[in-house]
Fold this sequence. Notes:
globular, two-stranded antiparallel ribbon
Amino acid sequence: MLLWLTDYLSQYISGFAVFQYLTFRTMVSVMTALFTSLVIGPYVIDKLSDLQLGQTVREDGPQSHLSKAGTPTMGGALILIVILLTTLLWGDLSSKHVWIVLLVTMSFGVVGWADDYLKITRKNSAGLVARWKYFWQSVIGLAAAVFLFTSAQLPAETALIVPFFKEVSLPLGIGFVLLSYLMIVGMSNAVNLTDGLDGLAILPTVMVGAALGLISYVAGNVEFSAYLQIPYIPGAGELAVFCGALIGAGLGFLWFNTYPAQVFMGDVGALALGAALGIVAIIVRHEIVLLIMGGLFVLETASVIIQVASFRMTGKRIFRMAPIHHHFELKGWPEPKVIVRFWIVTLVLVTIGLSTLKLR
């Protein structure tokens, strides 16, 4: 929106031309989202409290979590509103990539909102019936995957790029739709499973989002993509602005969500942010790198799968409780220790993921 305005004003005042630079708009989007979150955050938290939108805590969870009951939830709505407004302000609204990412993110946010709302109104942690949640996630994920497949203009846009190798690119054909669907829905649920402790999910999401923003920038630049030997995806650079908005909104939310949390993200935020990471990684053709950088999310999901499979097959549990962050809590780790150590793990994994850009 402001890109068009500043482009027009640059004809009369040359200083406005700086807003045409993608790097500048990305930095501005980070600061815009962060400042907006910090300013309206207290109002949103108070409003959630007034509406009595309090967290419902699992009775079979760690006893230390019982004191969190009633803490305002659905704070992820703050993140989504800020991301939407910031991207509309500083993004190139003629970009199909910007719109598909926004639509997927906000649509998953609606599914998450319905889940949170039912949890609150029913006074239990069940929320939306699993099959219906998965159904709507699948509809949105498949629609996005089909759109990207049918609108692709270059072979690289639907090929699987294998990191650490210079020229390993596997044509997927219609398999692109399946892979994209699994990435979007899988990452959405993975981030949601991780969101169980104060600030545990949001900072890793910000770290991975920042890395994807960098990858988006270089993938959308002919010279940088050629130098790093990664696929050139026309228009992908604009996703750096979206990722910048995600970084700023996420850090602003962390200000209120850090231990002890004043507000929880809820499914409205977790499902949407996970889907956002998935769709961005698909567009820039770095799904495998996302799985590396988002290894924490993968680990949390795997711990649940392993726990359920073990109990059904042997009647025994591998972990004291799943997802795995609860396992460490029940082993005696204080909540802040679990959170910070998981943050450190994510930082290491993001560094490894980014190293694949050069190690080819």
